[in-house]
Specification:
This protein is of the alpha+beta class and 241 residues long. The protein has 9 helices and 9 strands. Helix 4 packs across helix 5. The radius of gyration is 19 Å and the shape is globular.
Length: 241
């Protein structure tokens, strides 16, 4: 019996889904969904290097492209679907989420607040915070940057995108319990996750963006972050899986 799988690829302005036959790699169907808010030029300001995207665009695109692909491939293919894989642009860094793993931008009060959305790879608003964490790391006997090339980037997890958003406004800050990667959030969404401490984190991003390493027995200690800025207190406990 033939088996089939769905592949989903998130890009800068769209999400693309395909269905393939796993026996021979033959592509049976494909579909593309262009993010409506991105097409309208919403939530990004090139002059300020700010580029954000609504999580609802990702969820809507996922649903629509898969439905189109299944309709094209047929019901028999759908009955023999065995898996789904998710890929995202190399650095769609992260979005703040509450304890259930839901981004605040999915709520009416925050749906138009850029700090409640995904910060994508083009966004350079966090350069100051990246400089701060690089200087801060020099004060510790353990080199927590040793496995990331010795320099923490502005588009990574803690010091850059998280610290920047937390310091931008108290309203959003009080709604964020953790920060999650795009490609970690989509499987969590698909599997019905409702506890961010149980979200499975990709090894690649957990290592180079969140500074997770065996030598540190996980993440750097909480005081590494709180001594950088008290607003980071407790976030390591929400990044466990």
């Amino acid at each position: 019996m033939a088996h089939y799988k769905i592949g989903v690829d998130y890009g800068r302005d769209s999400v693309r889904s395909i269905i393939i036959n796993t026996a021979n790699g033959y592509q049976l169907a494909s579909s593309v969904f262009y993010y409506p808010r991105w097409k309208e030029g919403l939530y990004f300001t090139a002059a300020e290097n700010q580029f954000r995207q609504r999580p609802s665009d990702y969820a809507e695109g996922l649903k629509q492209t898969i439905k189109v692909c299944i309709k094209k491939a047929g019901i028999e293919v759908a009955k023999n679907m065995k898996g789904i894989s998710i890929a995202t642009t190399g650095s769609t860094p992260a979005v703040g989420v509450d304890k259930t793993g839901s981004p605040p931008a999915l709520l009416p009060d925050f749906e138009n607040n850029p700090n409640a959305m995904f910060v994508i790879w083009k966004d350079h608003t966090c350069i100051v915070e990246a400089v701060q964490i690089n200087e801060h790391a020099k004060n510790f006997p353990v080199n927590y940057l040793q496995y990331v090339g010795g320099i923490y980037s502005f588009d990574w997890f803690f010091g850059a995108t998280l610290l920047h958003v937390l310091c931008e406004g108290e309203v959003v800050r009080n709604s964020i319990a953790s920060r999650v990667e795009h490609y970690d959030w989509i499987p969590f969404l698909l599997s019905g996750g409702n506890d961010v401490t149980k979200m499975k984190r990709g090894v690649c991003s957990a290592g180079h963006k969140a500074l997770r390493a065996e030598d540190f027995k996980g993440l750097p200690p909480n005081d590494f972050f709180t001594s950088l800025d008290p607003v980071l207190d407790g976030f390591t406990s929400m990044h466990l899986s």
